[in-house]
Hints:
423 residues, 25 helices, 9 strands
Amino acid sequence: xxxxxxxxxxxxxxxxxxxxxxxxxxxxxxxxxxxxxxxxxxxxxxxxxxxxxxxxxxxxxxxxxxxxxxxxxxxxxxxxxxxxxxxxxxxxxxxxxxxxxxxxxxxxxxxxxxxxxxxxxxxxxxxxxxxxxxxxxxxxxxxxxxxxxxxxxxxxxxxxxxxxxxxxxxxxxxxxxxxxxxxxxxxxxxxxxxxxxxxxxxxxxxxxxxxxxxxxxxxxxxxxxxxxxxxxxxxxxxxxxxxxxxxxxxxxxxxxxxxxxxxxxxxxxxxxxxxxxxxxxxxxxxxxxxxxxxxxxxxxxxxxxxxxxxxxxxxxxxxxxxxxxxxxxxxxxxxxxxxxxxxxxxxxxxxxxxxxxxxxxxxxxxxxxxxxxxxxxxxxxxxxxxxxxxxxxxxxxxxxxxxxxxxxxxxxxxxxxxxxxxx
Length: 423
Ligand code: SF4
Ligand code: SF4
């Protein structure tokens, strides 16, 4: 038998590869197949490539890496597969194999290293926010669009309006429950979320407290490892997962609450990430079992706080890491429906990714731009007063392509406005 092209550390499991019956039901929901109509850029084609590599019939370099790199990791194929193929586990086993075994070009490696040297670090992001503000005040965007290479152009185009007060603000470490306490929860404040979307975190604390949760938000929390997990940087993911578990398990809470879809999905995967480490496997599984997206937690609690009406047509965008990866679709809609007067709109092609997908819109700017424009067209077609979505990456990506046509919010900000929780 030919030797596998994967190394021996957690290769894609043979039994998961064999689950695919090549029916093609996943093809219409795969964004890259929709864009290019190329079999090897579909879930079925990528599983076939993994199968060939596992049999040692192809190597990992060249076409294999190219087609796996082009995958958004959006997991729309997991939702649409009638055979229950766990493409998420296959991709998360394959990407670290590429990172370990396939040398990248110098410029690609440097760009990826720069992303990982900046985004998971809140202090560095705050320094970047200062430069970002100066850059926006000096109106250098047009010049940048002319002189920068595509990946850097994409990065600067996603920079949100920088507000330094927000970037340097800190959250209260403990917010008491309003009325009788129903849960004691700890909140992940995130990296990009903490610096560029402080208002979302602040709204989340107020809403949780108004609904009877005591909210603990540890100051010294770091990156949860989501970027590394989804990009195949296993060492980064493992190190940050262990630190996050250590930070939160000291707090003895009922739940760990997240308002970033990408972080929530990776924190729910800690159990699988650390299952081969006897010192961590049980701790990681216990931690993952406590993790809830904020809309999931709010849907578990009978609404208690009074809501005032918001008479608006609101389109809800399912972040892929919430809808496809965590299967959390009904809960955000149920939570939004507790607001009187609000009309919830569904989007055409709701299952198709907006092109954000972690760091995808930075490293694959062209397909990300096509998907961003397609999402913006679909949103405009339902004529909403505003759009809500539960992931900062989606807010930045969709905001870029809507270009001011429709205001965007996180669902918890809308709920906060309806509850008018005390500030
Ligand atoms: S991944 Fe699922 S839907 Fe896609 S071809 Fe395989 S079995 Fe069919
Ligand atoms: S994760 Fe998304 S882009 Fe990748 S194969 Fe599945 S549907 Fe296609």
